[in-house]
Amino acid sequence: MVLLSKASSSVSSEQYSYTSNCMPTTFSSSSSSSVPIVDLSKPDAKTLIVKACEEFGFFKVINHGVPMEAISQLESEAFKFFSLPLTEKEKAGPPNPFGYGSKRIGPNGDVGWVEYLLLNTKQEHNFSVLGKNPEKFRCIVNSYMSCVRKMACEILELVAEGLKIQPKNAFSKLVMDKQSDSVFRVNHYPACPELAMKGENLIGFGEHTDPQIISLLRSNNTSGLQISLRDGSWLSIPPDHSSFFINVGDSLQVMTNGRFRSVRHRVLANGVKSRLSMIYFGGPPLSEKIAPLPSLMKGKESLYKEFTWFEYKNSTYGSRLADNRLGHFERIAAS
Ligand SMILES: C=C1C[C@]23C[C@@]1(O)CC[C@H]2[C@@]12CC[C@H](O)[C@@](C)(C(=O)O1)[C@H]2[C@@H]3C(=O)O
Ligand SMILES: O=C(O)CCC(=O)C(=O)O
Ligand SMILES: [Fe+2]
Questions:
Q1: Among all ligands shown, which has an atom nearest to the Cα of 211?
Q2: N or C: where does the chain have the smaller number of CB atoms within 10 Å of the terminal CB?
């Protein structure tokens, strides 16, 4: 069921007692690059962001303005939720597409060493099944999301300024729109002690790109996140619980006509410590046309066919995690 790098083994822990299907895998990783760090309070932020989005589709943000209190309250509520008995957590599931999920990711057979809560940002959830004090959980999730949405807006305005796009809210207005189809996810990767003993790798969340515009990720201090570099090697991202990590999503790649790179990334589970991550996926309204901004075309053809976010999202949910989802929407260049 879950991928390990060497021989087969049976994995068991309190809530994870199942046998994994182990497949030999080689995990090459790179250590010669490091991730760009952007200080949002500095005047060079917009230039560094554009460069990072072009080169990596990924960067780390410091001085982000999200109060540590909002972060730690959510982390503590999330840990409380994930430590409930499985039967309690399953009351908030299955994720179709929102709710509690365990091991299965998406509707098409992907699996990972992860359990999660997937929420939409329009607060249409039945929070009454979310743990012991659902009202408290709801307040904490809402205040965290509004802080992170503000940061997403700030970053997207810096992107527009860095790319000399007018008006500067060309991207940010999409995630600030009341109809914005944004998603919020909390992932919990339990420690897998068997891995520590065998020195093996276990996929927590398989490789993929995020379909939305931008993703803002914060995790506790447990490693696991890797991004794919242009040469195909994997770069391990050292965890930093006080910073945020930003991913360019497929939609931003399209809106910049391929100038920005939607980064492939994955998570490996940890043998010793559990990882908790919270990700805000900033998406446009469903009816929004996703197309390159005219000012970025400079007489060039669009690399992509026209589509709405609704069409892209539908196609996404028919795909496997590792698929190249944008592939269907690329235009074949006329020679
Ligand atoms: C396998 C899948 C899970 C996913 C929907 C999909 O069919 C392909 C994209 C996956 C992804 C990756 C980024 C986000 O975590 C996510 C919520 C999203 O929008 O696209 C997940 C989807 C999911 O877990 O439902
Ligand atoms: O949990 C993480 O650190 C990243 C997970 C991820 O990439 C996702 O949920 O799309
Ligand atoms: Fe992701």
A1: 1
A2: C
User: How far, in Å, CA of 66 to CA of 244, rounded?
Assistant: 9
- The C-alpha atoms of residue 257 and residue 243 are separated, in whole angstroms, by 29
- Specify the amino acid at residue 256: T
Q: What would the mean pLDDT of 127-131 be, rounded to a whole number?
A: 72
pLDDT tens-digit map of 309-324: 999 999 999 999 999 9
pLDDT at 3: 37
CB of 126 closer than 8 Å to CB of 103: no
pLDDT above 70 for 26: no
Quote the CA–CA distance of 52 and 147 in Å, as a whole number. Answer: 23
The answer to the question of residue 5 being in a domain is: no
Residues in the chain: 335
Q: Please tell me the distance between residue 205's alpha carbon and the centre of ligand 2 in angstroms.
A: 7
Examine the residue annotation and report whether 331 is marked as an active-site residue of this protein: no
Least confident piece of the model among 76-80, 111-115, 136-140, 175-179? 136-140
User: CATH number for the domain including 151?
Assistant: 2.60.120.330
Q: Which of 110-124, 215-229, 272-286 has the lowest mean pLDDT?
A: 110-124
| Atom number, ligand 2, closest to the C-alpha of residue 217 | 3
Give the total number of structural domains in the chain.
1
Tell me which of 267, 268, 273, 280 to substitute to probe ligand 2's pocket, judged by most ligand atoms within 8 Å of the beta carbon: 267
Range of the domain at 165: 13-329
State the pLDDT at residue 19. Answer: 29
- Answer yes or no: is 121 within a domain: yes
- Which position has the token pair 């943000």? 61
Residue 241, CB half-sphere, CA atoms under 13 Å: how many? Answer: 12
